[in-house]
Write a structure and sequence with these properties.
The chain contains seven helices and 15 strands. By secondary structure, it is an alpha+beta fold. The protein folds into two domains: 164 residues, 2-Layer Sandwich (HIT family, subunit A); 119 residues, HIT-like (HIT family, subunit A, 2-Layer Sandwich). The strands form three sheets. Strands 3-4-7-9-8-13-14-12-11-10 form a ten-stranded antiparallel β-sheet. It has a three-stranded mixed β-sheet with strand order 1-2-15. The protein has a two-stranded antiparallel ribbon with strand order 5-6. The longest helix has 22 residues.
């Protein structure tokens, strides 16, 4: 496996780095980043709200799970077009010498409508409103972990067209799976294989790429970043899921999250992005964290064919720009 021994400013060309979280490789290519004006996006939310199912007055267009406030300021609804559904039979099937394996698409999809305002932006919402949003995420995560067969609950936010957002009204999603899979599983396997949590004390390892920090959290541009301007927010205390955060940590989490999102917008303009929460309630060895991927590039043949990612903004350059203009 390939490991970097020098920094990019000592190199004339690109560098292949290994991501310590997942084991994926990234080709870091200095000097190929797009200018912000080339990748700015406009009108993220759209203008026609008459048929938006998340609008106040259109509550009958969705199956409501819960709401906060009267009139509501945050709602939780069932996803009308779920990838997984609790009505799907849970089964395991193997065919063709065990090469063809499948399980039933059992699970849960929920949507948290972050605000009644169609044009609201997460990082611009009032601080106390965002604390309520976080508490609701934790409450729904806890509820879904009690459901039969559920092994993992995944929280994520798609923002903008390039981020896969199909409805412009601000919202977060939660999926509950009958299996532990994907990058979270890779991270857990790596932690267990090493026998030590590599997130503990990571701010020192990543100090060259440190974006910002507060009493409870730090944010970095990971050494093996797979996407331009990728960032990761990590609690300084070993915490395996959101619900373990103390009150002070929750407030610090909101502060650093809004700082990262606001600073990214200040540097690159209004970008599509994906925000994902990596946590596992049932695995104390896991170290929760949040990953944010601005969508300034599109995965292509190298990424899809080899799972090797081409990153045209070096983590060091991104961190330097971030610290210079941090909000």
């Amino acid at each position: 496996m390939i490991f970097s021994m020098v920094y990019l400013d000592q190199l004339n060309g690109s560098e292949i780095r290994k991501d310590y979280r997942t084991g994926y490789l990234s080709i870091i290519v200095p000097g190929r980043s797009k200018r912000p004006e080339e990748v700015k996006e406009k009108d993220m939310a759209g203008t026609d709200v008459s048929k938006c199912p998340f609008e106040p007055g259109n509550e009958n267009m969705s199956n409501e799970i819960m709401r906060y406030g009267d009139p509501w300021s945050i709602r939780v609804i069932e996803n009308k077009f779920p990838e997984l559904a609790p009505g799907t039979p849970y089964f395991l099937e193997k065919k063709g010498k065990n090469l063809l394996k499948s399980i039933g698409g059992y699970g849960y999809n929920e949507v948290i409508i972050e605000s009644p305002l169609h044009t609201a932006v997460l990082e611009d919402l009032p601080f106390d409103h965002l604390l309520n949003w976080l508490e609701i995420l934790i409450e729904r995560e806890d509820v879904l972990y009690t459901k039969k067969y559920i092994k993992h609950v995944f929280i994520f936010k798609n923002y903008g067209v390039a981020g896969g957002e199909s409805i412009g009204h601000p919202h977060t999603q939660i999926m509950a799976y009958p299996i532990l899979a994907g990058n979270v599983r890779k991270e857990l396997e790596n932690i267990k294989k090493q026998g030590v949590c590599f997130y503990d004390g990571l701010e020192e390892v990543e100090k060259e790429r440190l974006l910002t920090e507060n009493d409870s959290f730090f944010a970095v541009a990971p050494f093996g970043s797979r996407m331009p301007a990728e960032s990761m927010i990590v609690p300084k205390r070993h915490v395996n899921y959101l619900g373990d955060l103390a009150d002070k940590e929750k407030r610090d989490f909101i502060s650093i999250l809004t700082s990262v999102l606001s600073t990214n917008k200040k540097i690159y303009g209004r970008q599509s992005y994906n925000l994902v929460v990596h946590d596992i309630k049932t695995e104390p060895d896991f170290h929760m964290h949040v990953e944010i991927y601005p969508r300034m590039s599109t995965p292509a043949g190298i990424e899809l064919g080899q799972s090797i990612f081409v990153n045209t903004i070096t983590p060091e350059d991104y961190a330097e720009d971030f610290r210079r203009v941090a909000v």
